[in-house]
Amino acid sequence: MAMITDMATVARVTTTSNARQRRRSRFARRSGREWIIRGCGAAALALIGFFEVEFSLSQALRHAPARAAALAPYDGRALGRLAADRSGPTASPVERRRSDQLAMDALRHEPINVAAAAALGLNADATGDPRRARRAFAYAERLSRRDSATQLWAIEDAVGRGDISNALRHYDIALRVKPELGGLLFPVLLGASEDPTIRHALVHTLAAKPSWGEAFVNFAASKISEPRAVATLFRDLRGRGFAIPPAATASLVNALFSAGLFDDAWNYYRLIRNRADRSHSRDPRFRAHLDVPTLFDWTPVNESGVVATIESGVFDFSAPASVGGTMLQQIQVLPPGGYVLRGKSSNIDQPAAARPYWALACHDGRELGRVEVPSSTSGGEGHFGGTFRVPPDCPVQTLILVARASDAISGLSGQINQAALIPAR
């Protein structure tokens, strides 16, 4: 056994010795030239690794362009970003000259550098050389349409030359590639749309259904300083087949109404509800299924614990004990005269003093009368009716369903199946 162990040990030593001799023999056969080549290769790899690390650092320092350019002065992108940084609106003449030098260096390293081309354009424009600015920005746009500075300058340049069509083309490009620019461009575009010539061109652009069109329309409806101008824009868009979102329509109608433009609000409402008649209430059987109602539609009021919904042709309501108030309302613009309210309820079983009632009130708060809703188990099977008279000095009214506070532990609940306000005969 010991002999076997000694033999194994001798074999391992012999194998190791032979391997060392082979390596020494191989190294001895290599020429000096081969060693030089191998050494240069290793040095080159090390140098490449150094530059790769430097380049990676310069890319990582995108928000510190000066440091990035110092780390990698051969990197066209880093130089282009620094050139752009030095071409801002507050740049001094010295900074702009330095920016031009950096931009030219960047383009020599990387001829497709959009930031560098745009920096040359901004500097030329700032120093009063519009022809050179146009050449630089035209080159930048050929390289890429995604550069915000290029598109914004093109918009300003086109507006300055009175070229509305070209300005809107650049608006379209900018908003397609960077929708977040809407926060900057939408207010300007909306304000400009009050000009009939610009509005006509804008409608033509929006009729093509660009990706930003609906967002702009929703913005216009929510930021209304001059609702009549927005109403005109929306009418023109509807005429070109642009579908105005329901939320935007409701916002516009309500804004017109809130501005005291009652007739304008009603007239625009009739564009979307072409069967609406100002002498009648709307949707007597609760079948409209509107996700976003306007003030002229039935509007459930859920406040103070009241639960009010319109579903499957029924207005359903419930109110906790001792809670009262408006549950349902609809704005009216009834001409002066007499009117009749007729309808039908179900599942209302309360004492007379706790049953809901309908009221018609003027916009200034005057109440024009009430119509009681009877118990559904009474002989009238839930049918109700009553009359109102609208005076000449009451151009706007609100039809409301009001809950009286109930002493019942279960509170108040029930349904309205029909409700129609029509002229008296």
Uncertain parts: 1-20, 22-62, 67-72
Task: Enumerate the strands of the largest sheet in spatial order, edge to edge or round the barrel.
Answer: 1-4-9-6-7
For the secondary structure, the number of strands is 10
SS-based structural class?
alpha+beta
Can you walk through the features of this model?
The protein is α+β, with helices and mostly antiparallel strands and 425 residues long. Helix content is 51%, strand content 16%. It is built from 15 helices and ten strands. It has helices spanning 2-29, 32-60, 65-71, 76-85, 93-109, 114-126, 130-143, 148-160, 164-177, 182-192, 196-207, 213-222, 227-239, 246-258, 262-272; strands spanning 299-300, 307-311, 314-319, 325-332, 337-346, 357-362, 367-372, 383-390, 397-403, 412-423. It has a five-stranded antiparallel β-sheet, with no helix packed on it. A five-stranded antiparallel β-sheet has the order 2-3-10-5-8, with no helix packed on it. Helix 6 (114-126) packs antiparallel against helix 7 (130-143), helix 9 (164-177) crosses helix 11 (196-207) and helix 10 packs across helix 12. The longest helix has 29 residues, at 32-60. Residues 1-20, 22-62 and 67-72 have low confidence and may be disordered.
Note the main attributes of this structure.
disordered N terminus; five-stranded antiparallel sheet; 51% helix; 425 residues; elongated; alpha+beta
